[in-house]
Amino acid sequence: MWKRCCFRRPRCSWCYLGLIAASLFLRSAISPVDMENASAGQPQSAPAASGTPPAMARPLKGLPSPEGQHIAKIKSLEDGKWLKLGAPAPDPKWGRARGRSWTAVMPLAPELRGAFLFGEGVHGYVKPDGHYMDDLWLYDINAHRWICCYPGADCKRLALQIDSEGFEADASGQRIPVASQVHGYSMNAYDTDNRRLMSMPNTHPYWQRAIPQRQTWLKPPPSDASPWMFDTLTGRWERLRTGTVGPPTGHGDTLIYLPQRKAAFFLHRNQEVWYYDVPGNRWSQVKPAGPPPPWGIDAVSCYDPKRQRIYIGGGSYPVAPPSTHAFWVYDLKAERWLDPQPKGKPCKGSNSYPTKNAMLVYDSANDKVLLVFHSHHDDTPERLGVYVYDPDANQWLDDPLPVPDELGRNRQAKNGFYDPQLNAVFIHSAGDSDDNSTMWVFRYRREK
């Protein structure tokens, strides 16, 4: 089995330049599908649901689960403490979710009491069961278990077609996201209004060795495509024509769902700000005022509903210069970038806290932003810690809270989320594309 650990890449950005160039070549091989068949601004229906494999029909039916004994332990967590929950129980058919690098966000589905994990790990990895690792999982918080929502493409048997609207679809008409994300980065979000996972693609060529037959039917998707969406009620994927030109997408972009707007915020390479209007099924671009962030891609981010802000920082390719800092604010009400010039600096003064090493969450119980620097790939362990930003004071608090050595120094990939109901941060840790997952929980402070 061919396997190359993503954490063993050279420190330079040449691998990303090559990845971007290869993706552009693949896209240009065939002319893009135009928008002539889409009605501007009108929702376009996906094919009728039929033929879903029985094993995957409505995999999330019956959620939320009853609370297990571990929930009481989480509720009793003291300030600044960690709890190791251990390995989640496997899905009875598909086993456990594997580790995946450069995937900071596990989008929380609060009504299901679960969080999704999506995005590849090792480039082009095929799991021992013969499925490509473009699988989708839900971590069931209450039951401390994995639920497989989609096992990934069956590499030997995959046979799709391009449907009438230009999307890859199976024989039942279901549109399927094949190798849609080389990594998850911060490009997955959850639509709490429609109960759907949303995912923006970042394409790549690494699937070609595992699924060579795909090249016989593959064409670029329509230029007016919506995000990919997984419907938690039906257990089916969908992607729609919007009738409006959509944004370019790439590695290390940012997607955040905004419940107050019923729209998704999408940031491409810190250069373009777009919104996907979910009820209207349309894209629109804005031209924000203010200074853009001083890094390239791969930033961590979170949404502050109280202030209608997005906090974003720590990106790479390039890292923000040492003469500045790497924590920026997007004001959603003013459509403006803000350099908050906060007092203090996280990560021992470093401007590098990308998705492979960190996650950023808004702790709504305490009205704080937590930068969890949980790993030190291509970095130093001295920077590990939970750094706390106070939005009212516009400052980073002086001393970071510790990350356990067993977690921070294990050299594994990590992903996570903040759960407001339990007022806790969850961290999933596993080797890149390895079947050795462990879940940890952290509480900053009890609700004030």
The gist of it:
Helix content is 6%, strand content 27%.
Number of domains: 1
Q: H/E series, N to C?
A: HHEEEEEEEEEEEEEEEEEEEEEEEHEEE
Tell me the structural class. Answer: mainly beta
Rg estimate, integer Å: 21 Å
- Mean pLDDT rating: 90
* Low-confidence runs: 1-6, 8-18, 20-55
How is the main sheet built? 4 strands, antiparallel
CATH class: Mainly Beta
CATH architecture, please? 6 Propeller
Number of helices: 3
- Quick one: overall form? globular
- Find the CATH superfamily: Kelch-type beta propeller
Helix content: under 10%
Number of DSSP strand runs: 26
Percentage beta strand: 25-35%
- The span between the termini is 51 Å
Largest sheet strand order: 1-26-25-24
CATH-derived topology: Neuraminidase
Describe what you observe in this structure:
With 448 residues, the protein is mostly beta strands. The chain has one domain (33-43, 67-443): Kelch-type beta propeller (Neuraminidase, 6 Propeller), CATH 2.120.10.80. The chain is built from 3 helices and 26 strands. Strands 1-26-25-24 form a 4-stranded antiparallel beta sheet, covered by helices on one side. Strands 2-3-4-5 form a 4-stranded antiparallel beta sheet, with no helix packed on it. It is globular. Residues 1-6, 8-18 and 20-55 have low confidence and may be disordered.
